[in-house]
């Protein structure tokens, strides 16, 4: 933590003039309305300056944590990353081509508990800027074209519903058609309860197209397991990789601790 504090003070010394520059810009009218100014301030505030290591509890300066790829500089623990951060980490600059960005979930069961399913989806969309719990697309990794799917635990716990299953299935089919390697980064609490059997069907659907990709076409599939990977994702494509890579100390299970208890 001491190192992070030093980094923070050094950063403030170097960039202390930014606040004044921001106020000067606002005075010139570049922020046209009070509403826009409040929105920008809100966005900057919500980013936060500090994060807590989930392993040791020490405080980490966010700017340097991101520069260290969200790995704690004191204990080496891998903190969570959102899907866009992982894409930027892996894919060569300006080569990312997203797929099926507009696909959204339908509440075919009219499911409701404390809140309706559609309300939960809307809240997660507003919170993350995503349409569902996975981003899929094509991009170059060190000059090699790959199909990449990245799950995002910040969207309803990375739960796998019909949209997640369909997006991953389409990605695999496209990668197979183009004879490209496939990489899937898992971060999920499992099948999405609000979709019932429809969510469970995605396990078989994804596994069947992976069988074509790996066995029939002899193409590479790499599965990367991050914190946490559980439930239906573990029981299907999470464990089907030709190569399976897990982040250090990642929580990987079929039935999680809370479910068992």
Gist of the model:
With 261 residues, the protein is an alpha/beta fold. Helix content is 41%, strand content 17%.
As a percent range, the share of strand residues is: 15-25%
Secondary structure tally, helices = 10
CATH superfamily of the largest domain, by name, is 2-enoyl-CoA Hydratase, Chain A, domain 1
What class, by secondary structure content? Answer: alpha/beta
For the largest beta sheet, what order do the strands appear in spatially?
A: 3-4-5-6-7-8
Percent range of helical residues = 40-55%
pLDDT averaged residue by residue: 86
CATH class of the largest domain: Alpha Beta
Architecture of the largest domain, CATH level 2?
Alpha-Beta Complex
Measured distance between first and last alpha carbons: 34 Å
Q: What general outline do the C-alpha atoms trace?
A: globular
Total strand segments: 8
Largest sheet: 6 strands, mixed
Low-confidence segments, given as residue ranges, are 17-47
Q: Radius of gyration, Cα only, in angstroms?
A: 21 Å
- Give the SSE order as H and E letters: HHHEEHHEHEEHEHEHEH
Describe this entry's structure for a reader.
The chain has two domains: 2-67, no CATH class; 83-260, 2-enoyl-CoA Hydratase, Chain A, domain 1, CATH 3.90.226. The protein is built from ten helices and eight strands. The protein has helices at residues 2-14, 18-27, 34-47, 62-67, 83-90, 117-128, 162-177, 197-216, 231-234, 257-260; strands at 50-52, 59-61, 97-99, 134-141, 144-151, 182-188, 221-229, 243-246. The longest helix is centred in the last third of the chain and has 20 residues, at 197-216.
């Amino acid at each position: 933590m001491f190192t992070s504090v030093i980094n923070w003070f050094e950063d403030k010394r170097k960039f202390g003039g930014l606040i004044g520059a921001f106020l000067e810009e606002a005075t010139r009218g570049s922020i046209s309305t009070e509403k826009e100014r409040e929105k920008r301030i809100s966005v900057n505030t919500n980013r936060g300056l500090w994060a807590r290591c989930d392993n040791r509890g020490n405080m980490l300066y966010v700017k340097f944590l991101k520069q260290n790829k969200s790995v704690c500089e004191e204990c080496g623990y891998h903190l969570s990353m959102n899907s866009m951060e992982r894409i930027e980490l892996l894919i060569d600059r300006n080569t990312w081509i997203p797929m099926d960005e507009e696909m959204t979930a339908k509440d075919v069961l009219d499911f409701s508990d404390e809140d309706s399913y559609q309300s939960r989806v809307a809240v997660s969309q507003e919170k993350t800027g995503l349409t569902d719990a996975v981003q899929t697309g094509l991009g170059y990794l060190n000059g090699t074209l790959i199909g990449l799917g990245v799950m995002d635990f910040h969207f309803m716990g990375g739960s796998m519903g019909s949209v997640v299953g369909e997006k991953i299935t389409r990605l695999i089919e496209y990668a197979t058609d183009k004879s490209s390697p496939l990489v899937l980064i898992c971060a999920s609490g499992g099948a999405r309860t609000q979709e019932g059997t429809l969510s469970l069907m995605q396990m078989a659907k994804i596994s069947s197209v992976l069988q074509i990709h790996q066995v029939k076409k002899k193409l590479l599939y790499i599965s990367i397991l991050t914190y946490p990977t559980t439930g239906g994702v573990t029981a299907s494509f999470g464990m089907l990789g030709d190569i399976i890579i897990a982040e250090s100390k990642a929580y990987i299970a079929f039935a999680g601790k809370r479910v068992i208890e």
